[in-house]
Amino acid sequence: MKFDSLQNYAHEFYEQSTPYAKIGAVGGIILAFYIPYRYFIARQRKTPIKSDYKQGLVYLYQFPRMKYVPTMSAFCLKMETWLRMADIQYENICSWSVRSLEGTLPFLEYNGKEYPDSALAIRDMTAIFSKESMENHLNDEQKATARAFEAMAENSLEMANIYFRLVEYIDEAIEQLPDNAFGMLTPVWKFLLKKMLTLKVSFYS
């Protein structure tokens, strides 16, 4: 009850503040959480993470599963879908906190080596598993067109997707999270996520 009262008070205070005060408050809160977050995900760690890995098995690191959809990340979905299409044996390792050495998610580990970034990982897995035949039915022009659509989807269209799903409909998105994903910090996480993604979309617009 006390937490709800504090949350309501903070919301009222924010709504009554001037535009500059709102910007300062949001910026301060984002920095207060973002700096420790960046430090946490960029810290030195062992590699590979999966020290007892199986030879020939791909380990896919991605966000935890949602209640009603596999993932809220388009890039995690892209990576897992490609592995399924390529008929490559893999194992999911889901985590909110684990990131690649470059600070990205998803990423792969294969035979003790890390492969960050979905596009680069797909390129490397294509070569390792000799999956070039997946595009053999396309001529050069069709491959170029496919790359253009891929770039459009991962840049312009993805920003629209983020805004629609995680800004305008943030409450519905939160409902898809696993129960108690962030505990009492869920309202704070929701507020920060909405503000940060709004800024991100505005930057790329």
TrEMBL record:
<keyword id="KW-0472">Membrane</keyword>
<keyword id="KW-0812">Transmembrane</keyword>
<protein>
    <submittedName>
        <fullName>Thioredoxin-like_fold domain-containing protein</fullName>
    </submittedName>
</protein>
<keyword id="KW-1133">Transmembrane helix</keyword>
<dbReference type="GO" id="GO:0005737">
    <property type="term" value="C:cytoplasm"/>
</dbReference>
<dbReference type="InterPro" id="IPR050931">
    <property type="entry name" value="Mito_Protein_Transport_Metaxin"/>
</dbReference>
<dbReference type="Pfam" id="PF17172">
    <property type="entry name" value="GST_N_4"/>
</dbReference>
<dbReference type="InterPro" id="IPR012336">
    <property type="entry name" value="Thioredoxin-like_fold"/>
</dbReference>
<feature type="transmembrane region" description="Helical">
    <location>
        <begin position="20"/>
        <end position="40"/>
    </location>
</feature>
<feature type="domain" description="Thioredoxin-like fold">
    <location>
        <begin position="74"/>
        <end position="168"/>
    </location>
</feature>
